[in-house]
Design goal:
With 265 residues, the chain is of the alpha+beta class. The protein has helices at 45-48, 77-84, 122-127, 147-153, 248-264; strands at 2-5, 12-17, 22-25, 41-42, 64-65, 93-97, 104-108, 133-134, 138-144, 158-164, 168-170, 173-174, 182-188, 191-196, 202-207, 213-217, 233-240. The termini are far apart.
């Protein structure tokens, strides 16, 4: 499989599946997808371990879903989660890497030391307490549909978790962006996004207004439980910037599932 992405901003545009002789376009890269595309099936559920975002999609069990490609057995995301989910709440560090592993790092389990207030963060000032850690051992995480995330990744709904920089480590010690095969792109004033310049994977979002914390692309995390990394992350019960969504039906279909998950978390 070949992946084609923008060498300047990292947006994934196309991928070619030579085995199936098919070319695909990233829907997030389209100027408008409402009415042009339809969410018909999910593939490679086996790679997610826990069903991924599929378990949050309204009426997901009515969709055609497959463990691998469309020539395999069908299975619902919810049923796949029941069969495969394993939580490992005792682990104190979590590996993360991109497709080519040119970007490789670990995040550390949050603890009392991570519950500091960032004096430059408007959210911390408003709440008078740190907001990026919940329940003491999980990081706040969100699904975002903003135009900037969509155009920088090619994905209609991006997943992020918010981690203090002192809780991210590389082989060379505490993280210092960029490292490895990371490349930065200034997507808006004060904002720099980082992606792997070799495989195109979205990796980090950094804002000068909160220099002590970065947004980490959740898709890079290698949690035992699967793609949602529920033993490490607490997902918020809403999609950020839904008004920016181009595939509005898909983005809105995630909200009920997110809200239900949040009640049980």
């Amino acid at each position: 499989m070949d992946i084609y992405f923008c060498k300047t901003c990292g947006c994934t545009m196309f991928w070619d599946n030579h085995q199936r002789r098919a070319s695909c376009v990233s829907t997030g890269a389209l100027s408008e997808s409402q009415g042009l595309t339809e969410l018909e099936s999910q593939k490679f559920l086996a790679d997610t371990k826990d069903g991924g975002l599929g378990v949050w999609i309204a009426d997901a069990d009515k969709m055609r879903s497959f463990q691998y490609n469309t020539d395999g057995d069908q299975i619902s995301p919810g049923e796949y989660l029941k069969q495969n989910a394993v939580l490992d709440p005792k682990s104190e560090s979590l590996k993360a890497y991109c497709l080519c592993k040119g970007v490789s790092f670990k995040i550390l389990r949050p603890d009392e030391r991570s519950r500091w207030r960032d004096p430059d963060d408007a959210n911390d000032k408003k709440k008078n307490e740190p907001w990026h850690v919940v329940h003491g051992d999980r990081y706040v995480s969100e699904v975002c549909a903003c135009e900037s995330c969509r155009k920088a990744s090619g994905i209609d709904a991006s997943t992020w978790t918010f981690v203090p920089t002192t809780y991210i480590t590389t082989d060379d010690g505490p993280v210092k962006l960029p490292f490895g095969t990371l490349k930065g792109y200034k997507s808006s004033p004060g904002v720099e996004r980082y992606f792997c310049e070799r495989c195109g994977a979205t990796a980090f979002y950094a804002h000068e207004k909160h220099p002590l914390r970065v947004d980490v692309a959740a898709g890079l995390l290698e949690a035992e439980s699967g793609a949602r990394a529920e033993e490490w992350l607490e997902w918020q019960p809403a999609v950020c910037f839904p008004e920016d969504a181009h595939d509005r039906d898909y983005v809105q279909s995630l909200v009920p599932g997110l809200q239900e998950w949040f009640k049980k978390a």
